[in-house]
Batch of 2 targets.
Target 1
Amino acid sequence: MSNLKMKEAALIYLDRSGGLQKFIDDCKYYNDSKQSYAVYRFNVLINPSDIVELDAELGNHILHQPLKAAQVFQSINIVLKLTHLPPLPSYCLDLCEFPRDYTSQRFYTMQGIVIAMTTVTKYTQGARFLCSDEACPLSKGFQYIRVHVPGATESATVRNDFLCNLCSSSLQEDRKFRVLGDKQIVEIITAKSLHAFQGYCNNQPFRFQSLTVFLRDESVNKMNIGNEYKVIGIPTCVKISQTAVCVEANSITFCIPKVPSGISDNFRCLLSLTSSSCWKFTAILANIFASQIVPPGTYNLLKLCLLMSLVQTSDRSKELENCLDILIVTSDTLLIDRLLNFSINLVPRGIRHSVSTEIFPTLSRNKYGTGAVSIQAGSALLAKGGICFIGDLASHKKDKLEQLQSAVESRSITVYISGKKFGDDVDQQMTFPVQCSFWSFLDMDSPSRRNIQKTNMLIGQMDCSLIPANLVESFALLINCNESSSCHPLLPTVQHTLKKAIDPEGLLYLASKQFTTEDFEKLLAFAKNLNVEFSLEAERMIHGYYLASRRIRTDSIYGSKLSASALKYLVSLSEAHARLNLRNKVLKEDVLIAALLFETSLTLKYGAAVFCVAPNAVFPFEQYNEEYLEQRDVFLTECQQQLQQFIATYGPGTAIFASDE
Ligand SMILES: [Zn+2]
């Protein structure tokens, strides 16, 4: 096909797609601008499907030789912006596969999670050069124009050793014609590499192999740390201290995770069998959950809380309110560690923080030498929309714990970039939302803890000294998990451990065969995407309990122990219980479970209060057959009445209360 025919097709495409009108508008913008430009830059939006339909050869040319194809559009600096690529394997660049094609300079699509990004700096879009010999005809006019092409470094566009073709004198840049654009460098990794390290606890330092993506002009600030994106771009090889494959982004789209259309048949059957009760389904779930790690019937309270925290993880970007942070006090750290590692694997973003890495973002100078500062994500931002399991709370240094507390309370983290340190004129700061739930545990048997015994403990209160009280308070749920307590009988756990030692891969219980890990994964993915709303009754009950609790847990010196976030946690817990029941409506029965869990946690933090809840109130029995489930429902109904009585006595509307809120 002749070049002329291709130009004709390009013109027809521009005409039909509205590109010509956009071209005219862009020209107007340049015409009105006071600045002198060496180069006019135009973006042309290309829909590959439409263009292939119109002219197959031009379409093919754009997809496979994009740099040459831009010339068909007849201007100096044309950037073809693709809406998408054909969904064919040959257009995908798998970040796990080697070797990577960086020689053919064509478009590929790739998908990855942002683990680092730089601040925005300038680059040269285009520059005008003149021959330094005034007698040479090329010392005037626009004969030497240099334009940035995808994948080129700054020195390819602007340098001081270019020579005149006519007289070999050196070329000098006419600075007032230089056109600058914005540039940002991000690093992405494939989501698969996160799975490889999920639940993997090794204290050896490691780093994910990342791919560098250059964002320019309108693409700058389109990517956020922790999010997953589809990027269309042209791979290229850049030589820095070592040679690296990079991609210059052409188009960026946010990846929306797939939601499963349903749950497994066995769970569906279980749900319908238990439909008469609001409490049975979740009780059975907690009972059989993680039977690979602990025998059914043990650690039920903790397992219910883990499931509720998992179901409150969110792929939707803007929800910060849902987080359910859990702190477990235990003397059996090995088992708890295993249980938590197992659980984080059930959501796409369950990150096991390794002590050799950082929880929160860190700064470094970026290796491409552009003066920009690179911000590395850290575990918390990588766990965006998921769980960040940070292991033993006491293993973190004091300053990190302070950072953690501030992040948990504000759900954001701010990074200060000192201009002095990174060679910039001004200080900068960047704030990132922290959209994950934190899980951690405290070892009650650690030698440093055993010797100290607080003397003035209140009934039911837990001794968490050595960890700042404010930090313990900032976790939504504090859970006591000791095998010696009545809720955690020792014998089944011992039997389980022995059987596992004999047959590590074996499924020990009927429940593990009927409800597999994949079934739980699917159930959680389905449940967490349910939109839930509160019934009026449930809403009243939450507010009633919150206000009543605030009032009875107030002392004259420090005011109320219940912060405003308590209400947020109660809402999140109630939602979680409704979601785990696969219900769209939050009922007062869900609020009861939320209140019991929250009150148990409050008792551990501050001691028992008027609304007295036994540590095993949510799971009063050791076994869960049909008969016990029925008895538990009767027991919980009584609890519900007590809660209503408590609200009626101490809640809003009672005389003493009027002055408080
Ligand atoms: Zn010359």
Target 2
Amino acid sequence: MSEEKAPRILKINVLRFDPNDENDVPHMQTYEVEEAYGMTLFVVLNEIREHQDNSLMFDFVCRAGICGSCSMLVNGRPTLACRTLTSKLDENISLAPLPLFKLIKDLSIYSGEWMRGLNEKLETWIHDKEQEINVDKLEERMEPALADEIYELDRCVECGCCVAACGTIQMKPDFVGAVGLNKVARYHLDPRDKREDEEYYELIGDENGVFGCMSLLGCQDVCPKDLPLQSKIAYLRRMMLTTGLKS
Ligand code: SF4
Ligand code: SF4
Ligand code: FES
């Protein structure tokens, strides 16, 4: 008869800090949790909050990799906690909030403010003046392959992992990052968007756009949705180069 292995005891080291408490300083706090089959970091953190420390703050909504709110640094790597199985990690796990975004407390960040600013700056919506004037105008048909290509890019959940992994944003806070460039590529591909290439050039044809990217692939390595970020940045670069030469 084979002996059952005792479950592992996970040591969860969390970077804790409340920026609204003037007496608080950033510090690590360690919790111990018995591992269970199929456990994710979402389950671990809830276990801690329910049974050990209800002051621990972190964000979750969907638990299924869809809302993008549970992004954090797991052993220094940006990822979604709800999609991270503890069985893939060592017993010693370190958790910290994503850098660059406004810290609310502990692992909870306010990425929505950053993402809203990005969407406003890049005007991430369909621009079609004719459609705005004549709302009864029928949309043009789209080839299924093109619709699939656009849908692929629409799968971005604005988790911010690519932003946290990007060395360029650390140096240039106005750089739009892979998330921004992916959104621009998405609208540029969409035949319903009637903006000219020159208008896109105005948006991202500089060092805070495609020409700031150092192509080190950090963004694509960590994107939990496996978006083809590098090929889209290359696509925009080619388009920007020919547009820049024209203007
Ligand atoms: S490839 Fe570009 S966008 Fe991606 S992490 Fe590097 S500098 Fe940032
Ligand atoms: S591109 Fe990927 S890593 Fe970046 S915000 Fe979207 S889903 Fe997250
Ligand atoms: S809780 Fe929604 S992506 Fe993790």
